Amino acid sequence: DTAPVSTADWKTYQNVKDGYEVSYPSNWKVDEHSNFAPPDAIGIAIKDSQKWGISIYNFGNVSDKEYGTLSILENAYRDKVFVFDSLETIMVAGYPATLYIVKDPKDVQMGYPVDIAIKVNGQVINITGFMNNSKEKDQFVSLFKEILSTFKFLK
Description:
Elements: E1 11-15, E2 20-24, E3 29-31, E4 42-47, E5 52-61, H1 64-67, H2 72-78, E6 82-92, E7 95-105, E8 114-120, E9 123-131, H3 137-150, E10 152-153
Antiparallel strand pairs: 1-2, 2-10, 3-4, 4-5, 5-9, 6-7, 7-8, 8-9
Protein backbone atom coordinates (compact mmCIF):
# COMPACT_ATOMS: atom_id res chain seq x y z
CA ASP A 1 0.00 0.00 0.00
CA THR A 2 1.02 3.58 -0.57
CA ALA A 3 1.00 6.40 1.97
CA PRO A 4 -1.94 8.81 1.90
CA VAL A 5 -1.47 11.77 -0.42
CA SER A 6 -1.48 15.22 1.19
CA THR A 7 -3.46 17.72 -0.87
CA ALA A 8 -3.10 20.67 1.52
CA ASP A 9 -0.77 22.67 -0.73
CA TRP A 10 -2.28 21.68 -4.09
CA LYS A 11 -3.32 24.22 -6.74
CA THR A 12 -6.70 24.22 -8.48
CA TYR A 13 -7.23 24.51 -12.22
CA GLN A 14 -10.65 25.82 -13.23
CA ASN A 15 -12.02 25.64 -16.75
CA VAL A 16 -15.19 27.73 -16.85
CA LYS A 17 -15.77 27.11 -20.58
CA ASP A 18 -15.84 23.33 -20.17
CA GLY A 19 -17.40 23.57 -16.69
CA TYR A 20 -14.99 21.75 -14.39
CA GLU A 21 -12.20 22.18 -11.88
CA VAL A 22 -9.53 19.86 -10.58
CA SER A 23 -6.76 20.12 -8.02
CA TYR A 24 -3.20 18.99 -8.67
CA PRO A 25 0.19 18.91 -6.93
CA SER A 26 1.68 22.38 -6.50
CA ASN A 27 4.89 21.50 -8.36
CA TRP A 28 2.96 20.57 -11.54
CA LYS A 29 2.32 23.04 -14.38
CA VAL A 30 -0.73 23.57 -16.59
CA ASP A 31 -0.32 23.51 -20.39
CA GLU A 32 -3.59 24.71 -21.93
CA HIS A 33 -2.29 24.25 -25.45
CA SER A 34 -1.28 20.64 -25.12
CA ASN A 35 -0.22 18.84 -28.26
CA PHE A 36 -1.55 15.60 -26.76
CA ALA A 37 -5.14 16.49 -27.71
CA PRO A 38 -6.98 13.97 -29.85
CA PRO A 39 -8.60 15.38 -33.02
CA ASP A 40 -11.71 17.48 -32.38
CA ALA A 41 -11.07 17.64 -28.63
CA ILE A 42 -10.23 20.62 -26.46
CA GLY A 43 -7.61 19.67 -23.92
CA ILE A 44 -5.04 20.56 -21.33
CA ALA A 45 -2.12 18.78 -19.75
CA ILE A 46 -1.10 19.19 -16.12
CA LYS A 47 2.29 17.68 -15.40
CA ASP A 48 5.46 17.79 -13.42
CA SER A 49 8.75 18.52 -15.17
CA GLN A 50 9.92 14.93 -15.33
CA LYS A 51 7.68 11.91 -15.28
CA TRP A 52 4.02 12.22 -14.27
CA GLY A 53 0.99 14.07 -15.51
CA ILE A 54 -2.65 14.07 -16.50
CA SER A 55 -4.50 15.25 -19.56
CA ILE A 56 -8.13 16.33 -19.60
CA TYR A 57 -10.12 16.56 -22.82
CA ASN A 58 -13.67 17.62 -23.56
CA PHE A 59 -14.96 15.71 -26.56
CA GLY A 60 -18.17 17.75 -26.57
CA ASN A 61 -21.60 16.29 -27.29
CA VAL A 62 -21.52 12.68 -28.39
CA SER A 63 -24.05 9.90 -28.82
CA ASP A 64 -24.19 6.90 -26.48
CA LYS A 65 -22.67 4.77 -29.24
CA GLU A 66 -19.73 7.15 -29.71
CA TYR A 67 -19.16 7.42 -25.95
CA GLY A 68 -17.97 3.84 -25.67
CA THR A 69 -15.25 4.44 -28.25
CA LEU A 70 -13.80 7.65 -26.82
CA SER A 71 -11.75 6.41 -23.92
CA ILE A 72 -8.17 5.99 -25.09
CA LEU A 73 -7.79 2.83 -23.06
CA GLU A 74 -11.23 1.53 -24.01
CA ASN A 75 -9.94 1.37 -27.59
CA ALA A 76 -6.62 -0.11 -26.45
CA TYR A 77 -8.49 -2.70 -24.35
CA ARG A 78 -10.74 -3.67 -27.23
CA ASP A 79 -7.81 -3.87 -29.67
CA LYS A 80 -5.59 -5.72 -27.13
CA VAL A 81 -2.87 -3.06 -27.38
CA PHE A 82 -2.27 -3.26 -23.62
CA VAL A 83 -2.36 -5.84 -20.88
CA PHE A 84 -4.40 -4.45 -17.98
CA ASP A 85 -3.86 -4.83 -14.27
CA SER A 86 -7.47 -3.93 -13.64
CA LEU A 87 -10.67 -2.35 -14.80
CA GLU A 88 -12.48 -0.74 -11.91
CA THR A 89 -15.72 1.24 -11.70
CA ILE A 90 -15.25 4.37 -9.60
CA MET A 91 -17.26 7.53 -8.97
CA VAL A 92 -15.86 10.80 -10.30
CA ALA A 93 -17.72 14.00 -9.44
CA GLY A 94 -20.77 11.87 -8.63
CA TYR A 95 -20.75 9.97 -11.97
CA PRO A 96 -19.67 6.39 -12.62
CA ALA A 97 -16.53 5.91 -14.70
CA THR A 98 -14.42 2.90 -15.62
CA LEU A 99 -10.82 3.24 -14.52
CA TYR A 100 -8.40 1.38 -16.80
CA ILE A 101 -4.96 0.59 -15.33
CA VAL A 102 -2.29 -0.65 -17.73
CA LYS A 103 0.05 -3.45 -16.74
CA ASP A 104 2.24 -3.75 -19.81
CA PRO A 105 2.01 -1.34 -22.76
CA LYS A 106 3.45 -2.59 -26.04
CA ASP A 107 4.48 0.98 -26.85
CA VAL A 108 6.54 2.18 -23.87
CA GLN A 109 6.75 5.64 -25.45
CA MET A 110 3.13 6.08 -24.34
CA GLY A 111 4.21 5.38 -20.78
CA TYR A 112 2.05 3.47 -18.34
CA PRO A 113 -1.31 5.20 -18.49
CA VAL A 114 -4.48 5.09 -16.47
CA ASP A 115 -7.63 6.41 -18.07
CA ILE A 116 -11.31 7.25 -17.51
CA ALA A 117 -14.12 8.82 -19.50
CA ILE A 118 -17.12 10.54 -17.85
CA LYS A 119 -20.34 11.36 -19.69
CA VAL A 120 -22.42 14.19 -18.24
CA ASN A 121 -25.36 15.81 -20.04
CA GLY A 122 -24.11 14.51 -23.39
CA GLN A 123 -20.60 15.92 -22.86
CA VAL A 124 -17.70 13.50 -22.54
CA ILE A 125 -14.69 14.38 -20.43
CA ASN A 126 -11.68 12.06 -20.78
CA ILE A 127 -8.98 12.11 -18.09
CA THR A 128 -5.76 10.22 -18.74
CA GLY A 129 -2.85 9.86 -16.35
CA PHE A 130 0.59 9.14 -17.70
CA MET A 131 3.91 8.15 -16.17
CA ASN A 132 7.17 6.81 -17.55
CA ASN A 133 8.26 4.35 -14.89
CA SER A 134 6.31 1.16 -14.20
CA LYS A 135 8.09 0.72 -10.84
CA GLU A 136 6.17 3.76 -9.55
CA LYS A 137 2.78 2.63 -10.86
CA ASP A 138 1.13 1.96 -7.49
CA GLN A 139 2.23 5.35 -6.18
CA PHE A 140 1.04 7.07 -9.36
CA VAL A 141 -2.34 5.30 -9.43
CA SER A 142 -2.89 6.38 -5.82
CA LEU A 143 -2.05 9.98 -6.78
CA PHE A 144 -4.27 9.78 -9.90
CA LYS A 145 -7.22 8.60 -7.80
CA GLU A 146 -6.59 11.47 -5.36
CA ILE A 147 -6.59 13.94 -8.28
CA LEU A 148 -9.85 12.38 -9.54
CA SER A 149 -11.36 12.83 -6.06
CA THR A 150 -10.91 16.62 -6.46
CA PHE A 151 -12.54 16.76 -9.91
CA LYS A 152 -15.81 18.74 -9.85
CA PHE A 153 -18.29 19.94 -12.42
CA LEU A 154 -19.17 23.62 -12.05
CA LYS A 155 -22.85 24.55 -11.83
